[in-house]
Amino acid sequence: MSERHPIDELFHRALHDAEVTPPPAVWEGIVRKRSKRRGGYWGWLAAGLLLLGSAAAFLIHNDKSAPMPTAELQDPGHMKSNSTPGDESSAIGVTDRTTSTSLLEQPVNTSTTGATEQAKTGPEARPISNESATRRAVINNTAPSATSSNNGAASAMSIAGTSAPATTLAGSAVPNIVSPSISAAVNVHPAGAEEVVVRDATAIELSLLPVIGPDMTREAAQPDSLKPGLTQEPYVLPNADWWLALEVGRHNVRRTWHGGEPLLVNALNNAEVPHYTWSLGLLAGRSWRSGFGISAGLAYEGSEYAFDHVDDRVRIDSMLIVPYIITLDTQVFVSNVDTVTFMTEETRQVSGTNRFSVLHMPVEGYWHKQHGRWTFGARVGLAAEFVTMRQGYTLDIDDEGDLMSVDLGAQAYDTRYHTTLTGLLGADVGFAMTEHWGLWATPTYMRGITAWGSEDSPYVLPERLSLRVRLSYTFTRIP
Amino acid sequence: MYAVCLRYARHQLEAQDLMQEGFIRVFDKLGTFRLQGSLEGWVRRIMVTTCINTYRRKAFQNEKFGLENVPDEPVAPLAVENLGEAELLKLVEGLPDGYRLVFNLFAIEGFDHAEIASMLGCGESTSRSQLAKARRMLQQRLGKDVVNEHERKTSH
Fold it and tell me: Does residue B57 sit in the same domain as residue B93?
């Protein structure tokens, strides 16, 4: 340190541990940006909150020795302030918005944010940081603010949530009035004062209720005559919904032959031209709130495509030659040649239409993200495909080693058409027409992976570029 | 942490942007914090890295990192009694980007030239020269006697 340049020393001393309270707009921006980014983890966050809320509710309601909250606690009407009648958003969402807004608007909360920021800087921060954090706790405990606390218990939990980071980081002594599960929740988010308050507020509300459900606030907002007792089981938003869909698909199909004689495989690949097909199917699935889902179904694909091949055949004719004798003077020559072979090349143009019916049994997993009435997502899956009916032509090698067109009506060629396993990858775009009915478009790429029981014979694997359009009906449980 | 951002930024709005970006990173990476070291140090490191990355990006976009041609403008020296955190912060803010970055990292954060060179992707000699120029500029701004006076005051 003694070697430090005077300028460096001057600035180091003055600025290394300096703290400046940021304007409230900075925190507002952080909260806004965080909430935008958090979309993908919404499901996990909601699940975590529900779990924490459940744990808190269980602990509070089962702890007989713990002092009960104030009389206000037992009045379910206190929930009115956090939601409006008919509000479709969940209690968690409403609380989040209300609390974070008030936090930024109210001077006392703004200063608390700054205090927390200062307290975060650790033991070297000024003592005022700890005092501020503690003072905030006292203020809330004795005179709950209009937003962050609707009752005594709420303010108590809010205190713990706000001051816990200060306790952890700056060593401030705060009354230990928070359950262990809430402490854990607070410690994972020490830097964001807003987030801490939001989470605690949610936990408190949930802790007051026997069963967690977003519509609890709606119940509380009802007139007293309609309000069910807390012992009555409330509506709980289902975790997942079933759906059924009718699907029409348009496919650009290219069939590729594999295995067997290379000559035959090449000829088959050249003889069968890529084509378009239609499919009609019925799908059923289950979508979870996290955005993930699975579906399975049955689809019929009618496939009709051109077959075109020129059969080249060489006809071999042999002619028996009588042995002959040639005499030259006294010498006699006997010929050993007894046959003459004539080779005749024949060509035959075979053109026709092949018709196949394929039964698909897809099992797919997907993930969806909703933006208003629009839904976007991706899906991946596997499908088993059974060729159920075929007409037309195929190729085979005859006894003379030539490629010959064969009528499938006359010969089955079952060994070539096996059940195949196809992998698929698709993107979903959906539009919710009503609460139940939705229209979906799914561009999909499908590719055959393997064929069962092909052994040595040639087998075909399809490759499809498809557009699937679905009309779906979601069986949402409405309270 | 806002003060850290103010030191690296050219003005308050930029500092606010840096702080937002830094804290969003902190939240994103919170799961990777091992709860073994100091949380403050961890957050501070993320903030400093955010600031450095921002200025490295800007260095490519707007100007070269080493500002060799910054004029040494003669300025009126400040009185030592007026020197508070805010004034010193303003002096740091007034440095050109390259000077400010190196000065912050060396003098205030305590990194050595090798570390700074590795962080900024420049040579150690560049780091040294930037630091020397930053000191000279600050010295001019402060006045020659101010530093000695400050030293004398703090030693008592």
Answer: no
Longest CA–CA separation in chain A, Å: 146
Assess whether B80 and B146 both reside in one domain.
yes
Q: Assign A412 to helix, strand or coil.
A: coil
pLDDT of A439? 94
d(CA A163, CA A183): 10
Indicate the pLDDT class of residue A195, thresholds 50, 70 and 90: very low
Name the residue facing B40 among A11, A25, A122 (closest C-beta). Answer: A122
Residue of A153 and A244 predicted with greater confidence: A244
| A477 in contact with B, Cβ within 8 Å | no
Contact B19, A22 (CB under 8 A): yes
Quick one: B154 and B79 in the same domain? yes
Map out the domains of chain A with their CATH numbers: 6-220 (no CATH), 240-316+350-475 (2.40.160.20)
Top-ranked range on mean pLDDT: pick from A157-161, A444-448, B12-16, B63-67 = A444-448
Instruction: Report the 10 Å Cβ neighbour count for A20.
Output: 20
CA atoms within 13 A on the CB side of A11: 28
Work out the average pLDDT over A289-318.
85
pLDDT tens-digit series, residues A348-376:
888 888 888 899 999 999 999 988 889 99
Determine the average pLDDT of the residues in B67-82: 49
Distance from CA of B52 to the nearest CA of A (A): 17
Structural domain boundaries enclosing B152: 68-156
If asked whether residues B152 and B122 sit together in one domain, one would say yes
Compute how many other C-beta atoms are within 10 angstroms of the C-beta atom of residue B91.
20
Q: Does A19 touch chain B (CB under 8 A)?
A: yes
Of B41, B62, B83, which marks where a domain is finished?
B62
A239-248 per-residue burial string, b: 16 or more CB within 10 A, e: under 16: eebebebebe
Average pLDDT over residues A136-155: 38
Say whether both B124 and B108 belong to one domain.
yes
Which of A16, A22, A195 comes nearest B108 by C-beta?
Answer: A16
Contact A21 B83 (CB under 8 A): no
Instruction: Residue B145: give its domain's CATH number.
Output: 1.10.10.10
Select, from the ranges A146-160, A177-191, A457-471, B141-155, the one with the highest average predicted confidence (pLDDT): A457-471
Q: How much is the CA Rg of chain A, to the nearest whole Å?
A: 39
- Which sign, positive or negative, has the C-alpha torsion B52, B56, B61, B65? positive
The tens digit of pLDDT for each residue in A391-404 reads 888 888 877 777 88
CB A422 within 8 A of CB A253: no
- Shortest CA gap B89–chain A (Å): 7
Contacts of A462 (CB under 8 A, 6+ apart): A253, A254, A255, A256, A358, A385, A420, A422, A446, A447, A448
Residues in chain A within 8 Å Cβ distance of B26: 191
The answer to whether ipTM exceeds 0.90 is no
Q: Which two tokens stand for residue A397?
A: 């090698």
Residues B74 and B95 grouped into a single domain = yes
The token duo for A4 is 């430090």
Q: Are residues B107 and B52 located together in one domain of the fold? A: no
Residue A282 Cα, gap to closest chain B Cα (Å): 41
**Nearest Cα to A297, choosing from A242, A255, A254?**
A242
B93 and B137 share one domain: yes
Among B34, B62, B90, the domain-final residue is B62
Answer yes or no: is pLDDT of A339 > 80: no
